[in-house]
Write a structure and sequence with these properties.
Elements: H1 6-29, H2 31-34, H3 37-55, H4 65-68, H5 74-114, E1 125-126, E2 130-131, H6 135-172, H7 176-233, H8 238-266, H9 269-286, E3 291-295, H10 303-324, E4 329-336, E5 339-346, H11 360-369, E6 373-377, E7 384-391
GO molecular function: ATP binding; phosphorelay sensor kinase activity; protein dimerization activity
GO cellular component, one term: membrane
InterPro entries: HATPase_C_sf, HATPase_dom, Sensor_HK_TwoCompSys, Sig_transdc_His_kin_sub3_dim/P
């Protein structure tokens, strides 16, 4: 907030306080309905979201709304129910001064310009009890009241809003046990995804070997058996035997090619030969969109993480080529302490969404499997940035 002009900070604080007053009144009027646990959690989550934005701290950001409907830990429900009376009290306590300040500024504006439109008994009053009876009073006291109250608002709104937000965060902050329970649930879910993906990958490898390599090897074995039988029957038929051996040799080369392709999908040989730097350089060089690669000092990372980064970057650049209409792309890889950060950026049209089958879901599954995080920033019109963070202090 420190980077904002004072008027913008005051305006944001004033809006926050007025909304808090409104929600406090709503809480009082609908208290029996809001005592339903799920509604209480939803109501508390919305306030926690507002407070987090007001304080501009990522640590206070709430879970997505859809997760608020999941069966929660008992502590979260109790905190949500506790927030109802706290919200009613703090909303009125912090919101009424803002309403009085803004309301009297509006009264001053009306009194300054439209005092003559009221009957003598209904004419507006400035500074609580000074009736506006003429232009002298209106032009002298009206602007003065606006200036004083505007100054009060510019000074007081932001601190009051932050104070209310801190109370909200303090009441609704998750306990250590709740955070641990959510972390365990997240790891359990990602582990299930990994097991499913692992099973699907094993079945794919089995199909590739069974339908491809094994079929070729069986055909080669049959050709060699026929060649052997033909040689035993008539050793002079060199042309027929030579043709069978030639077919068998070609079949062996094709089978070896397929086998290398299968092995490459399990663990790319280029990672073992050239390391992560060389593998990513090859991926960037092979992308149809001109790609700049920036790799900082990352030392050595676990093989499983190298494979995840390699496949994730390859998939991301494939998405750039297929969907982004980009003219340039950039891959940045760096390490800070025990966190490996990978960012893939393009200057395309944006609008990337992992719900549309663009490969982002697969990237997310790979990264989450190693307890990492994926953030996608892709506004309409671009640019698109996919940021992956993985723990490498194993």
């Amino acid at each position: 907030m420190t980077s904002e002009p004072r008027w913008a900070t005051a305006r944001r604080g004033g809006v926050y306080l007025l909304v808090s007053l409104f929600t406090g009144v709503v809480t009082v009027l609908t208290l029996p309905l809001l005592c339903v646990p799920r509604l209480a959690r939803l109501w508390a989550g919305a306030h926690r979201d507002r407070a987090g934005r007001m304080l501009a701290t990522a640590s206070t950001a709430p879970p997505p709304i859809r997760r608020l409907w999941a069966e929660p830990a008992p502590g979260r429900t109790l905190r949500a129910l506790l927030w109802l009376p706290v919200n009613a009290v703090t909303g009125l306590l912090f919101g009424l001064p803002a309403l009085l300040c803004v309301g009297n500024i509006v009264v001053a504006v009306i009194a300054t310009s439209l005092w003559w439109a009221f009957t003598p008994a209904e004419r507006p009053r400035l500074f609580v009890d000074v009736a506006v009876t003429g232009w002298t009073t209106a032009l002298a006291l009206g602007p003065l009241q606006m200036i004083i109250l505007s100054f009060v608002g510019s000074v007081a709104f932001a601190p009051l809003a932050r104070a209310h937000a801190r109370i909200c965060v303090a009441v609704l902050a998750r306990s250590t046990n709740d955070q641990l329970a959510e972390r365990v649930a997240e790891l359990t879910r990602t582990r299930a995804d990994v097991l499913d993906a692992h099973g699907a990958e094993l079945r794919r490898i089995e199909r590739d070997l069974h339908d491809g390599t094994q079929a070729r090897l069986v055909a080669i074995a049959m050709r060699l058996a026929v060649a052997r039988q033909a040689f035993d029957d008539d050793p002079r038929d060199d042309a027929f035997v030579a043709r069978l051996l030639r077919d068998a040799h070609e079949g062996i080369e094709a089978a070896m090619t397929e086998l290398r392709e299968v092995i490459r999908t399990v663990y790319p040989p280029i990672l073992a030969d050239r390391g992560l730097d060389g593998a990513l350089s090859a991926v960037a060089a092979g992308c149809a969109v001109p790609t700049r690669l920036d790799i900082g000092p990352i030392e050595r990372v676990p093989a499983a993480m190298e494979a995840v980064v390699y496949f994730a970057v390859a998939e991301a650049l494939t998405n750039v080529t297929k969907h982004s209409r980009a003219t340039t792309a950039r891959v940045r890889v760096g390490r800070t302490a025990d966190r490996l950060t990978v960012a893939v950026t393009d200057d395309g049209i944006g609008g990337a969404d992992d719900r549309r089958g663009t490969g982002l879901a697969g990237i997310r599954r790979r990264v989450l499997a190693l307890d990492g995080t994926v953030a996608v920033d892709s506004p309409a019109g671009g640019p698109t940035t996919i940021t992956m963070e993985l723990p490498c202090g194993w």
